[in-house]
């Protein structure tokens, strides 16, 4: 196995570069077009779109480009696929995380996480169980064991997959990203405790849509009240050295986002190629 991360988003983070990503629909044509797009990763949308793990499995396969595989010598998709699952809620949703990871996704974005308990569950749901005396035992893994499809997708044997199928940065060799969406005033109030208490969080993604609704300024992303709430999230993430992301990166705001320290930048899918190219150029790569 190579020591180089398969997960392109993690590679960007470890190189101290922003990761450029986009939302994607669960259909084969979108997956094909996104397979060689100028992104580090894509997020398959399964919260507001139908939750369909069969369609996700198909989309993951269409992300694989034979020419790119032959030239790179790695079967990892050039653009790393992760998935946003339905909202965390009281059900805790371990099963949704397990199913997308079992298909081969390299990470899970959890909407509406607002408490330490919900954050702990999100990380635990992406980890396999291990003995209590094992290193990095917490958060205690609760992911059910069914690795065959994911191992095949990653191009690994099952034992190799087990070694890499842990959460980054808690496990430095881990390939799985846990992203938590901070999209309520309760989440902002609890964010310091969440980041202090729960290891293994790969990034915090601000949910500007829901947050702006609660603040009384729906989708007014440049409103001072919304910007101030976002500033609080960014400052808390920086305090804990956790990557913070923005899901509405545009040609208008991407320079400001880079200057404010956002490192997980999301844009609309195909329509945003120019935005991503400009942002990469301004970031120096």
UniProtKB/TrEMBL annotation:
<dbReference type="InterPro" id="IPR050251">
    <property type="entry name" value="HpcH-HpaI_aldolase"/>
</dbReference>
<protein>
    <submittedName>
        <fullName>2-dehydro-3-deoxyglucarate aldolase</fullName>
    </submittedName>
</protein>
<keyword id="KW-0456">Lyase</keyword>
<dbReference type="GO" id="GO:0016832">
    <property type="term" value="F:aldehyde-lyase activity"/>
</dbReference>
<comment type="similarity">
    <text>Belongs to the HpcH/HpaI aldolase family.</text>
</comment>
<dbReference type="InterPro" id="IPR015813">
    <property type="entry name" value="Pyrv/PenolPyrv_kinase-like_dom"/>
</dbReference>
<dbReference type="InterPro" id="IPR040442">
    <property type="entry name" value="Pyrv_kinase-like_dom_sf"/>
</dbReference>
<dbReference type="InterPro" id="IPR005000">
    <property type="entry name" value="Aldolase/citrate-lyase_domain"/>
</dbReference>
<dbReference type="Pfam" id="PF03328">
    <property type="entry name" value="HpcH_HpaI"/>
</dbReference>
<dbReference type="GO" id="GO:0046872">
    <property type="term" value="F:metal ion binding"/>
</dbReference>
<feature type="domain" description="HpcH/HpaI aldolase/citrate lyase">
    <location>
        <begin position="28"/>
        <end position="265"/>
    </location>
</feature>
<dbReference type="GO" id="GO:0005737">
    <property type="term" value="C:cytoplasm"/>
</dbReference>
<keyword id="KW-0479">Metal-binding</keyword>
């Amino acid at each position: 196995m190579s020591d180089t991360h398969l997960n392109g988003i993690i590679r960007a983070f470890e190189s101290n570069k922003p990761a450029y990503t986009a939302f994607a629909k669960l259909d084969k044509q979108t997956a094909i077009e996104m397979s060689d797009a100028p992104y580090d990763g894509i997020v398959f949308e399964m919260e507001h779109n139908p939750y369909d793990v069969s369609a996700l499995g198909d989309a993951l396969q269409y992300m694989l480009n034979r020419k790119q595989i032959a030239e790179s010598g790695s079967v990892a998709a050039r653009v790393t696929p992760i998935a946003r699952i339905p909202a965390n809620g009281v059900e805790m949703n371990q099963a949704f995380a397990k199913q997308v990871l079992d298909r081969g996704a390299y990470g899970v974005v959890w909407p509406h996480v607002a408490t330490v308990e919900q954050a702990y569950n999100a990380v635990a749901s992406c980890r396999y169980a291990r003995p209590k005396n094992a290193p990095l035992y917490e958060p205690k893994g609760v992911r059910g064991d069914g690795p065959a499809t994911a191992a095949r997708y990653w191009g690994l044997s099952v034992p190799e997959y087990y070694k890499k199928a842990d959460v980054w940065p808690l496990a430095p060799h881990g390939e799985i990203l846990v992203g938590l969406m901070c999209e309520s005033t309760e989440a902002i109030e609890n964010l310091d405790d969440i980041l202090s208490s729960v290891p293994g969080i790969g990034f915090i993604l601000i949910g500007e849509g829901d947050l702006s609704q609660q603040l009384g300024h729906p989708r007014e992303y440049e409103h001072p009240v919304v910007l101030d709430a976002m500033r609080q999230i960014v400052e808390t993430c920086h305090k804990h050295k956790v990557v913070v992301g923005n899901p509405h990166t545009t040609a208008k705001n991407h320079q400001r986002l880079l200057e404010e320290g956002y490192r997980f930048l999301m844009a609309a899918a195909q329509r945003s190629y120019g935005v991503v190219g400009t942002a990469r150029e301004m970031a120096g790569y």
